[in-house]
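Re: [ENG-882] Designed sequences occasionally contain unexpected residues at chain ends

Forwarding the minimal case from QA. Structure tokens:
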């Protein structure tokens, strides 16, 4: 069911309201099932402080960060393998990243009231030719996108529940982050907050 992007921003294809409300409920249930098998945890930053965003993953690899640094790992910090990637997320990948191999990681980020994510590049994956696909669920968030160099000019965009972003080759190494979420703007998550799922090829 491929459509064209609503807008392009710094090479990122933005698909507003890509998921219907019913699909958002289905994907949320699938993400909750992952979280039951692989509970959210607070990764530590390089400086050793816990991040405000809580995370878990699905797929062959998950993203972990602890005193040993950050990396993709085949196990949750609790020692278990990661659950399978949610089927609805896989369907979005097949639709919007058709030329890429199957995703090996579905990172799930949970933002509570005061959570944010500082500007960073995603460069822990082996091959930047493959896209990253991001799916937003729940409360609105202010997403910020810069350039391939740290500290360059930035633009911001509000991401809402059901929006999907595709970071293809041109956008793959841009700096990006989440300034803040607008807590309580969506009724999808019972206790509020925002979930973001990102699909990636890791190896
Ligand atoms: C641009 N997540 O998981 S999604 C991340 O909303 C991450 O949780 C944010 O940054 C979130 O690494 C932003 C949009 C996004 C995701 C990955 C990207 C933008 C990106 C990778 C490269 C360039
Ligand atoms: Fe990122």
């Amino acid at each position: 069911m491929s459509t064209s992007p609503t807008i392009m921003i710094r090479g990122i294809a933005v698909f507003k309201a890509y998921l219907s409300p019913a699909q958002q409920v289905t994907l949320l249930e699938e993400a909750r099932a992952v979280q039951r098998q692989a509970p959210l945890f607070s990764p530590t930053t390089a400086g050793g402080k816990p991040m405000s965003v809580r995370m878990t993953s699905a797929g062959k690899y998950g993203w972990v960060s602890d005193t040993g640094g950050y990396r993709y790992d085949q196990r949750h910090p609790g020692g278990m393998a990661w659950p399978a990637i949610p089927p609805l997320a896989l369907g979005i990948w097949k639709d919007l990243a058709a030329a890429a191999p199957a995703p090996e990681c579905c990172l799930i980020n949970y933002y509570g009231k005061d959570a944010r994510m500082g500007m960073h590049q995603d460069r822990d994956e082996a091959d930047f030719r493959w896209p990253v696909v991001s799916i937003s669920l729940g409360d609105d968030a202010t997403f910020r996108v810069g350039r391939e160099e740290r500290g360059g000019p930035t633009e911001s965009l509000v991401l809402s529940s059901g929006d999907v972003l595709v970071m293809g080759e041109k956008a793959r190494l841009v700096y990006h982050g989440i300034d803040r979420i607008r807590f309580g703007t969506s009724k999808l998550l019972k206790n509020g907050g925002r979930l973001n799922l990102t699909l990636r090829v890791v190896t």
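QA comment: On inspection the terminal residues look reasonable. The mean pLDDT is 96. Proposing we downgrade this to a documentation issue.
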